[in-house]
Amino acid sequence: MKLTHENYFSKEASTEYMSASQYKDFAGSLGRKGCEAQAMAKIRGEWQQEMTTPLLVGSYVDAHFEGSLPMFKAKYPEIFTKGGELKSTFKQADDIITRCERDPLFMRYMGGQKQLIFIGEMFGTKWKCKVDSYDPDKSIVDLKVMKSIGETKWVRDYGSMLFVEFWGYDIQGAIYQEIVRQNVGKTLPFFIAAASKEKYTDIEIIGFLQSNLSDMLSLVQSNIDRVLQVKRGEVEADRCEICDYCKFSKVLTAPVHYSRLVR
């Protein structure tokens, strides 16, 4: 199929193409466990991620930088009060945008071509990605809006972890870099343009060592056979019993000992 902005997130595109987010749905990241059952439910159109307020704020900022904010506002009328004013949370999103736009370096990295779609082939399957800001011959940039840039999360067996590893954005960077390389013939550096939702918005341009991205691509390669077997229906999808989908679809079969309640 020919990918367009209109069908990029469709069921057909999710079935035909692998993406960084779909891969992480299956295999997880260093900080978050994947769920094969939920990943398959998303592909089949049986489950959708809830569009929470934090996600809406991030999408609001994304929409501004890609030039589609009027369409976003029309699609999500819940961001307005009954009086037609932006709710306070989204007024803060406007403040985040203003803070980003008054920093020359941030805007230089966000000044490339917006929302370009690239396709490629890796490890026996087709891949797709959509780049927030692509500067030909210079950089691949992904915009991220989060609670705090420097906040760490505690992960059992690993300890404190920054948002990049927790959410698998290093994995995303490795996948984007390789797909773009296949299209333009150059290995371009990957950056995150990060902005926080704090009272006073923090901003950073975050870079990666090439060795780190190469390691993450090797990790994808080591996991992809299992992912594809599940996606093709060759083996049964495992349930994580942690995610919202597993909670929603759980069927009890017997009592469990309380020691098994630790997830």
Q: In words, what does this structure look like?
A:
The chain is an alpha+beta fold. The chain has one domain: Lambda Exonuclease, Chain A (Alpha-Beta Complex). Helices cover 42% and strands 18% of the residues. The protein is built from eleven helices and seven strands. The strands form two sheets. The protein has a five-stranded mixed sheet. A two-stranded antiparallel sheet has the order 4-5. α4 crosses α6 (88-101). It starts with 10 loop residues before the first helix and ends in a 14-residue tail after the last helix. The model has no long low-confidence stretch (mean pLDDT 94).
CATH topology title: Lambda Exonuclease, Chain A
* Quaternary organisation: single chain
| Beta-strand percentage range | 15-25%
CA radius of gyration is 19 Å
Question: Which secondary structure elements does this structure contain, and how are they paired or packed?
Answer:
Blueprint: H1 11-16, H2 20-27, H3 36-43, H4 53-66, H5 69-75, H6 88-101, H7 104-109, E1 113-122, E2 125-135, E3 139-146, E4 152-155, E5 159-162, H8 163-166, H9 169-184, E6 190-196, E7 203-206, H10 210-231, H11 244-249
Parallel strand pairs: 3-6
Antiparallel strand pairs: 1-2, 2-3, 4-5, 6-7
